[in-house]
Write a structure and sequence with these properties.
Elements lengths: L1 H44 L13 H8 L8 H31 L9 E5 L4 E5 L2 H15 L6 H18 L8 H5 L30
Antiparallel strand pairs: 1-2
Helix pairs in contact: 3-4, 4-5
Amino acid sequence: MLTAILLVLMTLVILVLVALAMYLVDRFNGLERDTKELLRQLQDSQPAKPSGPYGGLSGKSLWDAVSGQAAGMDELALDGIRKRYRLLLSDHIQWVFNEGVSDHRNGLEAVPANTRMMRTPKVQVESWLPPEAVEEIYRCGQGYGRADPLELPSLRQRLDSVNSQLHQACALEVLQPASSLLMPPLPEPPPAGAPANPSAGATDPGATTPAP
């Protein structure tokens, strides 16, 4: 009789232990699933790491970033983007200016769009500039195309002014005035009364003087 009671008690203890073990295993599996789901949600919520020399930005979004109008960007990454943006900005300014010079010489009048695909040593990226700055640079190019020495000082001042404004907006130091690169001195005009062709009026040594 005692043996039977002990057997029943042992069976009950074993059943309780088995049930407890199953419960603990189920709880452990549940915690593991919850942990994996939480980690996945955290990974999904993290923004993708920007890639490329401009952090995956282009066009207006790139301008907004370097000009401080985009919130939430890492300052260290933004500083690196700004340093590389200097070359892109200079190339875009030069392209717009040259368009003004070329259009004047060809008798055209077409202010370029303020977006332009620019090729850099590493990547091709869309550049965006404020429309009013693009027009001013273009007008300076047209003025330089007129090749009027009297107009050159004011054109240089206007070009350097808009160049400085664009660099300041991007927290970049102006290393060189734009006019020193894009507006070299114009050729000196010939003296008043001088023939347009230096050989005009000269006697050809081999020519035969007609008989009177």
